[in-house]
Amino acid sequence: MAKVRISTTMGDITVRLYDETPLHRDNFLKLASEGFFNGTLFHRVIKDFMIQGGDPESKGAPAGKNLGSGGPGYNIPAEIHSATLFHKRGALSAARLGDEVNPTKESSGSQFYIVWGKVYKAAELKQLEHQMKMQQEQNIFNSLAMERREEIMNLRRNRDRNGLMELQDKLAKMAMEKSKELGAPAFTPEQVDVYTTQGGTPFLDGGYTVFGEVEEGLEIVEAIQNVEISMGDRPKTDVVMNEVVVLE
After folding, report:
1. Are 15 and 108 in the same domain?
2. pTM of the predicted structure, to 2 decimals
3. Exposed, middle or buried by CB within 10 Å (0-12, 13-18, 19+), for 220?
4. pLDDT in tens, 77-126
């Protein structure tokens, strides 16, 4: 069981890395052992959401510098197991570029975030499930539309509104049927229990790789997510990772 201590200017956070996500585990251990994170900042902090770090360009960064695009020069294939490894409070997760440029949800080679989130009511989770179902149907529809891209372009060139409407209705029905085959996205009983008692960010499940969790120092995460921030969600007073070391 691999553990890493993140020693910050506000205190120490010890994280345990999951064996179920070996690519992310081994990469984090490699970077930590090389001292990659030493001197970097928690450069993006959002209260009641998360704290993010791991950008090498944040080392000694002057105030006002735009941060969040740096990395080691590679990405990591997604290892998403949202039913069992999810965004509970204290989860260690990999940051990444958005779906529009990163449809396979590859993770940043170094940037990560630690979840804080909030405690949810059961009714709020039900609403999220409904939104997830709608998003699943939309994603399937978009994929089907991409497969028919040439046909859609021809209909547009010919200004065939009726043809476009008929095709849209057809693809919408196909998307609905495909979504039913896949099954509606739903939180497990464990997720419901955790999100309604401990808290987290359930709306991120299925979208990002969760590869560890805080074992000690959750109060430090809480303190960091409460700091005053400036433009770009950067803390007004830098929160520095003085040293990130492998414990075992």
Report:
1. yes
2. 0.90
3. buried
4. 999 999 999 999 999 999 999 988 998 999 999 999 999 999 999 999 99
